[in-house]
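Troubleshooting entry. The earlier prediction with flavin-adenine dinucleotide gave an output that would not parse, so I re-checked the input for stray whitespace and re-submitted. Clean input:
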Amino acid sequence: MTVLDRRRFLELCAAAALAPAARATPRLRVVVAGAGIIGASVAWHLAKAGAEVTVIDRQGPATRASRGSFAWINATWSKQPRAYHALNQAGVAGWKRLQHELELPVRWGGSLEGIADAALEAQLVERVAEQRRWGEATRLVGPAELATLEPNVDFSALRHVVYSANDGAADPVAATRAFLAAAAVLGARVEYPCELTGVTLAAGRLTAVRTSRGDIPSDRLVLATGAAPDVARRFADWDIPQHDAPGATAVTTPMPRLVNRVLWLPGVHLHQRDDGRIVLGEEGGPPPGEAHALHLPEHPNDFPAREIALEHAGRMRASALRFLPGLPPLRFDEVRICWRAMPLDGYPVIGASPARPDVYLAVMHSGVTLAPVAGALAAQEILEGPLADAPADFRPDRKFEPTSGY
Ligand SMILES: Cc1cc2nc3c(=O)[nH]c(=O)nc-3n(C[C@H](O)[C@H](O)[C@H](O)COP(=O)(O)OP(=O)(O)OC[C@H]3O[C@@H](n4cnc5c(N)ncnc54)[C@H](O)[C@@H]3O)c2cc1C
């Protein structure tokens, strides 16, 4: 895999943020389909660089994966191989760069990953060393330090805990809205509910995007449509094979501070936002069963009933209680099932459609971590053309080898 290092990515980010006067005259008209965190970041980066941007969403801002995301911002050891890790590092750096400019809601402080499985032990030391070689402040931590880092967490059932000091977690809904609000200040229009229904071409070039609210004259279309595999096929003449990857998350009502960092523990992951809400994520996918076989093919974004949502939330709380004995009874603002935008090989798809170069594809998992760098890269390429040194491994025309993840 080609490795594009963090410094090079930061150069790209800076280039994408050039003053409007330096770019795009006459202004390029771009429609961004999808107002999740990826579309919102692409839109802001484009608007900042001087493009005339319209964002459309068939439902509304952050209503799909970006609403149900656990939203851990990280470049930890599971982000393999090196090129993908470097992309995630650029994402983390992007959040740190944009946080203050856009008032993005992120809580830093690192993450603690608990390892209970003896089989992982041999790998662990090597992975931690690799993280350090790749520039991450990652290390194993012992009980005394853990008691200081997380006094309310009982780590005694774990064999090892890995501390990755560089990580954080976002409020993905608020962050999406912040990107869109900042884009709107720069003149971008945000329209919803507004569904992409077609494209109009003249002499092989895009001239307008057809939507449920009428035609929008346009020079470029960005598909930031998440877990919707048919969209690329229909509007970009290109297939992004995806696999189904649902996940459940729960968000509590605000509570007094209980945990400081992102905790990735056997059976459950959780973090507590600055607003006091605890976000819990269920480990693993849905087990086989009649109810799941009946409902999941429809790709629902809500549980069929409040009681079922609360059953999932109850299981997450029970798993968390093993490590947080002082966890009080929880009240939930939201319990969601969400579908990851998951290309078949697990890696991002970033680049123009090989079949229709006016249509740019931006579909990816770990999209919260990657939003700043994906937005900067997409804006740069849409305005200036493809970058010769962008990693080929994330282009739409690669061979998609299936992975077993999720
Ligand atoms: C349970 C779960 C946990 C996750 N945890 C993490 C994590 O810890 N860290 C991390 O970095 N990432 C995580 N992710 C992944 C991350 O949330 C996603 O990669 C990211 O939200 C994708 O954003 P998006 O904007 O591409 O997609 P979405 O948020 O799904 O947005 C796509 C939008 O496109 C719209 N759309 C689709 N078709 C059309 C159309 N025809 N016309 C108009 N609009 C259309 C939809 O309405 C939707 O709003 C998680 C995801 C899930 C589901």
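This one parsed fine. The pocket of flavin-adenine dinucleotide is lined by residues 33-39, 56-59, 63-66, 68-72, 195-196, 224-228, 231, 247, 249, 281, 338, 340-341, 364-369 (CB under 6 Å).
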